[in-house]
User: What shape does this take?
Amino acid sequence: MGPGSKFLSAACLLFALAAHAAEPSGFGPLRGTGDLGIAVERASGSLQWLDTSKKTSLGRIEGLGDLSHASAVFSRDARYAFVFGRDGGLSKIDVLTGKIVKRVIQSGNAIGGAISQDGRFIAAANYTPGGVKIFSTETLELVADIPAVSQTTGGKPSKVVGIEDAPGNRFVFSLFDAGEIWLADLSENPAQPRITRYANIGREPYDALVTQDGRWYVAGLFGENGLAVLDLWNPEAGVKRVLGDYGRGEEKLPVYKMPHLETWAVAGNLAFIPGVGRHEVVVVDISSWQQVGTIAVAGQPVFVMAEPTGRRLWVNFAFPDYDTVQVIDVPSRQIVQTLKPGKAVLHMEFTPRGEQVWVSVRDANRIDIYDTQSFAKVGEIAAQEPSGIFFTARAHRLGL
Amino acid sequence: MYKNLALSVLTMAWLAQGSAFAADVTPSPDRQRELARFVHQECGFCHGLRLTGGLGSPLTAASMRDRPVELMVEIILDGIPGTAMPGWKPHLNEQDAQWIVRALQEGLLDGSR
Assistant: This one.
């Protein structure tokens, strides 16, 4: 190779590098991902790829399988979304390019997942076979398998629900069939997580949350009254039962859709949780875990979500009241707005600083965008039967 | 389209049989379409959009075929006390529930629409 051709190769390389720097993905100029997100199109197994600054869809990402009840978490650089599908599919999506980077089928039937505090691991919670699998976020290769086999269920694996990340590179989850909470610590050896089991936490935990400060893991119980609470600052103190008297002796209304706890609203010391089998939001003081009030609402709440400022709560409802969204003012605990976006409001997501809320309206095939100050509708995006909406700001929050 | 056709064929088969599902108790084709969507969308929250199960048990033909129709109808209408399965009586009548059970057993609602 002569000096001429060496120069030529170097020039080509430089050119290639320059082109690469200007267009890292081949999709236009450099940009960040902080205002991007995805919305699940549940029936068609696709995602809408969203830009919240421009209030627009950047396109559709297809080929994700069965997305019933699908959810997503984000990598710590907010570039990749990990989408958990019902069919056990775990897909890694590049939010910058709108492409599927990698996809594995990790179980027969899954419910959701979480990402570790250090961003290195994904945990997927499974129904069939029950248990939790831990994957590398880099490669989606299996790191550890935790079958949720309990004595309580005679050695049968349990469906796992309410999986959350906790500080110290731990994952916490609940066993629906066994009525247990398990804490898996990955901090020493991720391939062999240290498991702490808490038995007899109550019947049929159906969902859970970790508060944003990472302190409390709270599981909702369907099979009996109350909540099961684990203090992650003092896990050796065990699980305690709270709100056991809530609704005792009263006939529950039928629950046509399980409430979600994951994005449960905590404002100051107060938590606002969906009343199960009741048309009310329950106000709980988390310093004492005592019920301090209820707020009557239009139906059985599914999501009770606080604006990032904590000032207002947005509530959606189960069938048949799922055409409605209500907004509660936190200081006065009054309903200040009732919106009717249309049949089947399935989810709501705030922009990172909360000036907008994006609302999926399933049967209208639409995502509506509302201004949270004026309640005016400021945009809409066509989407096929949209359900969960997930913005990249979730990358930097615990317990989502 | 294919599913709609299949649903109509099933209806006709019932009519031809002169079974308990006679003309006057079989939901109209419009209602059948509504019910099919209802099963995927509303039941699907717990049983999966493709009915392969979730927090609720699978409702695929394979898992429903051998279950007694009357018991299944009762479960749809009244729920199973002490479990997460609610009664749908305020929103579905007996013929709706009977049609749903038969359609599930025949596999007409399997998979996505």
